[in-house]
Structure formats: C-alpha cells, structure tokens
Amino acid sequence: MDTNTLYVADLVLKRGGKPVLHGVSLNIQAGAVTALLGANGAGKSSLVLAIAGAIELSSGDIKHKNQPLSGLRPEQIRKRGVAIVPEGHQVLSELSVLDNLRAAGSACSTRKLQSEIARVLDIFPELNAKLNTRGGDLSGGQKQMVSISQALIAAPQFLLIDELSLGLAPAVVKRLAEVVRQIAESGVGVLLIEQFTNIALGLAQHAYVMEHGRIVFSGSSQQLRDDPSILHSAYLA
Prior knowledge:
Blueprint (H helix, E strand, L loop, with lengths): L4 E11 L2 E12 L3 E5 L6 H8 L7 E6 L2 E2 L5 H6 L2 E4 L11 H8 L5 H14 L16 H13 L5 E5 L7 H16 L3 E5 L3 H7 L2 E6 L2 E7 H6 L2 H8 L1
Parallel strand pairs: 3-8, 3-9, 6-7, 7-8
Antiparallel strand pairs: 1-2, 1-4, 4-5, 9-10
Helix pairs in contact: 3-5
Family: Belongs to the ABC transporter superfamily.
Keywords: Amino-acid transport, ATP-binding, Cell membrane, Membrane, Nucleotide-binding, Transport
Protein name: ABC transporter ATP-binding protein
C-alpha cells in the first residue's frame, strides 16, 4: 500500500435514515490535485465530511500509511494528516484573523504555532493587513483565505476543499486556484470540489464524477475535457 496515498474504499453512509453514499471508493495522491465533480446533491460534501470524521459511516474503510482512519474523531484524523476546508468560507466570526489562526493551531506548541502562522501568511500575504480584523467583517474571498490557512496550520498531507470558489469574484478565484496548485506542488494531496469544472480540470491530474452517491467516472482530467458528455450526463441526472 502506497504511503503517499489516502485510500477510501466502499464508503456507505446514511443521513436521517436515507442512503447518501453507496459504496464510494477513491484514492487521493499526495503532491497532486484530484477533482471531485458532480451536481448538487450528488453526495460530494457528505463524502468529504465522512472522510474528515465529521459524520459517522455505516461501513467502509479509509486508510493512510496502512492505518485505518474510519471511526476516528475529527481531531484524531486531523492529527494523522487529513484536513478539511468546509463549504461556505467558515471562520470564527467574533475572533480576529490572528485568533482564528491561533485557534486552528491550538494543539501546536507556541514555537510551532508561530512558525505555522508565519508560513500561511507567506502563502496569503493579503491577510497580514487583516490580522486584527474580526472574521465576520472580512470579504468572502478573505474568509476563504482564512479557512484554507486554518486547515494548513496543521501541516496536513491531504487537504479536502469543498467548493473553493462558491460566491467569489473571478479575480479571487484565480488567486485561490494558484494557491491550490502551489499547495499540491509542495507535496500535499488535494481533493478539490469545485463548481467551475474548467477550473477543477485545469488544476487536477485525476478526476472523479459522482452521481446520486456513486462514483460514475474515474480517470484523467484530460478524458473529461475530451469527452464533456460524461459530465453533462452527470449534471443532468
């Protein structure tokens, strides 16, 4: 088993007694972007939350370095190298940007936390001028930068990003897409859910398409660019 891969196998999930995931399997490779595409309601967000331990699986396996992650609490999964950027640019509204970053690194030593905050501010220097600003007073793009920074504080090997560009201006989306590319080039494996398929396929080497809680396509991003009918049928299903 490749230690640079996060393995997700046969995940089954029910929410409110209703099946949401039906035996979903995928692999996330460190140092690369993997796109997860599909229409609203396909189960993409549920899959990300399940991998991160935020919702309980009915069955299935999640493994990294031959160690099981399924059944662990979110903070345990985070410690084992898997971090999530949830949908909706989520930040702690009443705390400053700096305190948002400190909260994300609460498990770090003081010296390590200072180093990690400096590192994410190198990635998003735009936030330096906003360190004392309340999270709730930030623009959508700034909130997304903080949300990504919070996930990166843990120095994850795998980063799950749910709806990178939702509600953001094109210039901000372009900036965030370049950061995602840089994160992957640094060795982190990124699972990217993105409403704009051209952005996702431009960043990703491999892509999965979900439809009604099932993976209906797994292949190279180039295959989806060459045959848009695959995506078209998934989004119309």
